[in-house]
Structures are given as structure tokens and as C-alpha cells.
Amino acid sequence: MNVFEWGFVAAVLLAATPILYSSLAGALSSQVGVFNIALEGQMLWGAFAAVAGSFYTGSAWAGVLIAVVTTALFSVTLAVGSARWGADPIVIAIGTNLFALGITGFLMRVLFDVSGTFSPRGLQGLDKMSFLAEIPVLGPVFAGQTALVPLAFVFIVVIGLWLKLTPSGLRLRGVGEHPEAASSLGIKVASYQMWVTIAGGALCGIAGAQLSLGNVTVFTENMTAGRGWIAVAAVMLVMGRPLWLPVACLGFGAAEALGFRLQGIGAPQQLTDAAPYAITIAVLVGMRMWVTARNRRPSLSAQPVPLPSQPESTS
Question: Following DSSP, what letter does each residue of 42-96 receive, concatenated?
Fold first, then answer.
């Protein structure tokens, strides 16, 4: 087993890309003050919609488009419920995740008369960038990837810089940081929250499409297998800052890719499958301990300032 090779880097990127897209959706939602834990269900729906769209249209890219549109519509419940009606987003998101798990399994039986796994002959997956094969470094890393892999990093950089450098991006951040002040300036806070949550649903649709048509060419019930929750953990780890998402997501992708390598040398599958989730828990616990320790550290402003000594009076 050799992790110091370009093939391992390619495996890390492949494993991390669905998490990158869904964590970007979560980061955008957190910027407007919506804690979105519906990423798991939205990504699962996107994976199913991409496979179903590719099967019926005969085009993988049509499947991606169908996944983006339908997952955006799928997120309307969370967007309208939390932003317009003031419902608890946690409760709505949990219901959304459970509904996605049930409806995808149900539709597999209704539409395709199968259960468990849907992998028909001739199902179109996303094309790989094989034209890069002869280029040093880029070839071993990206030749076997789909165009959605580098596009994820483009999205993260563009959106991260937009949030930091543009008036509209700063306005969006203000909605999440100080909604009362934003509302006093005439900004429609609920509209911002609703449309950003729907845009996040579209990103989760891309995440699901990459998972089911890019990483593999198959749909399996509950195939996201907790990746949406890892995306939530990544958002918490970077505190909602999009530009830092690759650091967290690539770490989780490396854990998954390393697990596959360990299976190749005889490690138990149960152990390697649990590795990304164990690392997620360890990182979140470590981050919480670090934040707690930092908050307990007295700051300079909290130190008592000694009063100047008064000169002795002479009588």
C-alpha cells in the first residue's frame, strides 16, 4: 500500500467531491442564519434523481440537470418552513432526511420494480476527463475524474471570495450575523434565507449526481451513508467559512480513500468503513475542547488594571 502516489490523491478527490458540494450548501445556509442538517436527505434525493433522469433520457448530463432542479424543489419545504413560517429548521430537516430515505426506496419499487440496488444495463454515467491523461501530474489526478470534481473547487473559491469582497456577499453575511440590523436597512431577511437555502438544495443535487453517476454508476438505497452528516460536521469545523471547506472535506476524503486501501491489504471492512465517521467525531470533540479552552483563557482586557499610587500628602 502506497499513499504517496498520485492515484491516492485522485481517490481522495473522488471521495471528497460530494462532501464538498453539500458542505458548501451548508456553509451558505449558515451564512444567512439557517442551520441546515438536511444535507443528507437532499444529497440522497439528488443521487436518485440523477440516476432516474439519466435512465429515462439516456444522457448523464440531463440526469445532473434533473437532480439539480428537483433537489432545489425538494429543499423548498425547509426554505419556506424555516424562513417564511418560522418553524424549527432542525425538526424540518430531520423530517426531510427521513422522507428522502423512504421516498427513494419507494420510487425504486414503483418506477423500476427493484429494491436495494438499481443498475440497469446501459445506464449513462458522467464522462471522465481522459483527454488529460498525457499531462504530467494533472493526468494521474484528474484523467479519471468527471468535470464536476474541479468545478467544486471553482465554486468554493468564487463563492468564498464573493462573500468576502462584494457588497451583495457582505449583505448576505449581514443577514446571518445581524438580522435585526439588516432588516432595519430594508433588507428582506426571510427572502435571503429562503433563496439561499434553495440554492443550497441545488448544490446538494450536484453532490448526489456526482455520487451516483460520477463516483459510481448505480443507485443503492441510502447510498449517501452519512456523507451529508460529514458535510454538516465540516461546516461546523470551519465555522461556516466556505474558503476553508477543502481543508476539512479533503481530510474526510483521505480517511475514506485510506479505508479502501486498507481493505486491499486485508483490514476488516467494518473497521475501514467506520474510519471517516470516527475521524469526524474525533475532530469535532477536539475542536470543542479547543474552543472551550480558549474561552476559559483570561484576556488582557479582563485583567484588573492597577490604580496609580497616590503621592503621600505632606502636612
Answer: HHHHHHHHHHHHHHHHS-HHHHHHHHHHHHHHHTHHHHIIIIIS---HHHHHHHH
Q: Where do the DSSP E strands lie in the chain?
A: 117-118, 219-220
User: Running DSSP on this structure, what letter comes out for residue 201?
Assistant: H
Closest CA to 269 of 281, 279, 261: 261
Under 8 Å CB-to-CB from 169, ≥6 apart: which residues?
162, 163
* Cα distance between residue 34 and residue 27, in whole Å: 9
How many angstroms separate the CA atoms of 131 and 12, rounded? 21
DSSP string covering 279-308: HHHHHHHHHHHHHHHHHHSPPGGGSPPPPP
Cell numbers at 229, concatenated: 452528516
- C-beta of residue 70 within 8 angstroms of C-beta of residue 17: no
C-alpha cell at 41: 436527505
Question: Structure pTM?
Answer: 0.87
Domains of the chain (ranges, CATH numbers): 6-296 (1.10.3470)
Give the C-alpha separation, 227 to 210, whole Å: 13
Distance CA 180, CA 187 (A): 10
Residue-wise pLDDT for 248-275, tens only, equals 888 888 888 887 777 767 677 777 777 7
The 10s digit of each residue's pLDDT in 10-33 is: 989 999 999 999 999 999 999 999
CB 20 within 8 A of CB 212: no
Cα(182)–Cα(159) distance, rounded to whole angstroms? 21
- The set of cell numbers assigned to 20 is 464538498
Rounded to the nearest 10 degrees, how much is the dihedral formed by the CA atoms of 43, 48, 50, 51? Answer: 140
Report the amino acid identity of residue 275. Answer: A
